[in-house]
Design a protein that fits this description.
- The chain has helices spanning 2-35, 106-139; strands spanning 53-57, 74-82, 90-100.
- The protein has 141 residues and is of the alpha+beta class.
- A three-stranded antiparallel β-sheet has the order 1-2-3, with helices on one face.
- The relative contact order is 0.14.
């Protein structure tokens, strides 16, 4: 019985720490949104999450090579919007352009990488909430 109670306690602690991390993440993400000038292309911070995905070019997002640059490429934040009613359903949009990656200051490049990771972190919570809601709706069927 103690094992089950310990597991429940541990799960509760993990959930609350993720919620705290999520709140903190959103604050930092919004600061980066403004600092990187993405607000020039996306009027409101909340509209950032209308995009299917946000990615970047010229720097790695893989854990073992995080932030490594791809010389000769241009560092930019790219978003993919999706409109199922349009002829061309997926559309790439440049949200921020910083020039040739090898000429971008390391600190700025790192902030761009951080912005993408933080965006994806929040987007994953939104996806989790979406599927949880669907599962709740299934219980009503």
């Amino acid at each position: 019985m103690n094992f089950i109670l310990d597991k429940l306690k541990n799960s509760r602690n993990n959930i609350s720490s993720y919620e705290f991390a999520r709140e903190e993440n959103l604050v930092i993400l919004e600061k980066l949104f403004l600092e990187l000038g993405i607000d020039k292309k996306v009027e409101k911070f909340s509209e950032l999450f209308y995009f299917r995905v946000i990615n970047l070019s010229a720097a790695s997002l893989m854990q073992d090579t995080l932030g490594e640059i791809k010389e000769g490429k241009y560092l930019q934040v790219l978003a993919i919007s999706y409109d199922k009613g349009a002829v061309v359903k997926a559309k790439n949009i440049s949200l921020a352009y910083f020039g040739r990656v090898e000429k971008v200051e390391v600190n700025l490049k790192n902030k761009v990488v951080e912005f993408i990771i933080r965006y994806r972190f929040e987007k994953s919570f939104m996806t989790l909430e979406h599927y949880n809601s669907i599962l709740d709706d299934m219980q009503k069927i």
